């Protein structure tokens, strides 16, 4: 089965990026979310990004139009009946994902591959609610999706070799680099990245230095494009905490305990850039 038409579920930061890179590579994309308002907003994000590419001379106006024409909006998942591939980038809650995959399994054609962009939930567990676990796989993109080259490809316990090879090939089609990993908590990228961020938060908590200085250490000393605290704000502190909790629960090792300061920030609603306040204060934040 050739993958030509796909559904992207979730028109947030990750879903819009995924829809954009897929449409840029010639795939027909149905961008789905719960309401028309959500999908319209998502399309606006893609439009602005493409417009920026046109201004910078990276795309022509015609290319922009063609890409936009390949994106169809939908707030009704039952329309996803004639596709070969679905990627879910909805909220990071196991119950929500299970519900979506159970429903998808009933409506999408036999043989279609179902992927999740989850950053930490077990692919094996998501696959278990379907009758096609061999066709369920993880495809973990990185933010900002149009820029970051990596896609972690996560094999659940039952994912077939054929599904894995097809998704590796799809990843190259959309000009990204696949890295295959097994279904362990945090997979590989977040298992390495997020404890580093947590450790940086411990440095603030214990008074080692300020956020700016800790970020400078990693930017100037290790050539990271963003410091760990700036990156935490960019990812969202709720997401960072939830990944630490998955690592802590999954491995049962105290080295993964979330920093109490991170827990407090999340309780306070200081979730980073999206709420206007995290380790830094952003426009509109207090
Ligand atoms: N969307 C799309 N493109 C973007 C973008 C965005 N949000 N932000 C920046 N870009 C692109 C722009 O095209 C820009 O080029 P242009 O100015 O010519 O148009 C180019 O990136 C460079 O951007 P800037 O000059 O504004 O800023 P930087 O040079 O600092 O780059 C960055 C921005 C690419 C975000 C860089 O800071 C970076 O790489 N940061 C680290 C990102 C990272 O680690 N991401 C992984 C997060 S972890 C994750 O996603 C996993 C999850 O499970 C938690």
TrEMBL record:
It holds the Pfam family 3HCDH_N. The keyword Oxidoreductase applies. Keywords: Oxidoreductase. Its EC number is 1.1.1.157. Residues 5-183 form the 3-hydroxyacyl-CoA dehydrogenase NAD binding domain. Signal peptide: none annotated. Gene3D superfamilies: N-(1-d-carboxylethyl)-l-norvaline Dehydrogenase, domain 2, NAD(P)-binding Rossmann-like Domain. Residues 186-282 form the 3-hydroxyacyl-CoA dehydrogenase C-terminal domain. It is an enzyme of class 1 (oxidoreductase). It comes from the Bacteria. InterPro entries: 3-OHacyl-CoA_DH, 3-OHacyl-CoA_DH_CS, 3-OHacyl-CoA_DH_NAD-bd, 3HC_DH_C, 6-PGluconate_DH-like_C_sf, 6PGD_dom2, NAD(P)-bd_dom_sf. The keyword Oxidoreductase applies. GO terms for molecular function: 3-hydroxybutyryl-CoA dehydrogenase activity. Pathway: Lipid metabolism; butanoate metabolism. Belongs to the 3-hydroxyacyl-CoA dehydrogenase family. This is 3-hydroxybutyryl-CoA dehydrogenase. It comes from Metabacillus herbersteinensis.
């Amino acid at each position: 089965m050739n993958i030509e038409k796909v559904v992207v579920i979730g028109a947030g930061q990750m879903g819009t990026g995924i829809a954009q890179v897929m449409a840029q590579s010639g795939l027909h994309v149905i961008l789905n979310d719960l309401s028309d308002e959500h999908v319209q907003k998502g399309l606006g994000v893609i439009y602005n990004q493409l417009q920026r590419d046109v201004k910078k001379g990276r795309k022509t106006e015609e290319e922009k139009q063609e890409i936009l024409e390949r994106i169809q909006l939908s707030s009704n998942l039952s329309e996803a009946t004639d596709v070969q591939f679905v990627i879910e980038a909805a909220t990071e809650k196991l119950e929500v994902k299970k519900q979506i995959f159970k429903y998808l399994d009933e409506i999408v054609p036999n043989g279609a591959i179902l992927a999740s962009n989850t950053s930490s939930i077990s692919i094996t567990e998501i696959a278990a609610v379907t009758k096609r676990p061999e066709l369920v796989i993880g495809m973990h993109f990185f933010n900002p999706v149009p820029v970051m080259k990596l896609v972690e490809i996560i094999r659940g316990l039952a994912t077939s070799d054929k599904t894995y090879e097809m998704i590796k090939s799809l990843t190259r089609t959309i000009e990204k680099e696949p890295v295959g990993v097994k279904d362990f908590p945090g997979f590989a990228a977040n298992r390495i990245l997020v404890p580093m961020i947590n450790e940086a938060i411990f440095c603030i908590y214990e008074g080692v230095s300020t956020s700016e200085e800790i970020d400078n250490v990693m930017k100037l000393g290790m050539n990271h494009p963003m410091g760990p605290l700036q990156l935490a704000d960019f990812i969202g502190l709720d997401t960072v905490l939830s990944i630490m909790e998955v690592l802590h629960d999954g491995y049962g090792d105290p080295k993964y305990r979330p920093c109490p300061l991170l827990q407090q920030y999340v309780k306070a609603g200081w979730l980073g850039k999206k709420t206007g306040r995290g380790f830094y204060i952003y426009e509109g934040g207090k």
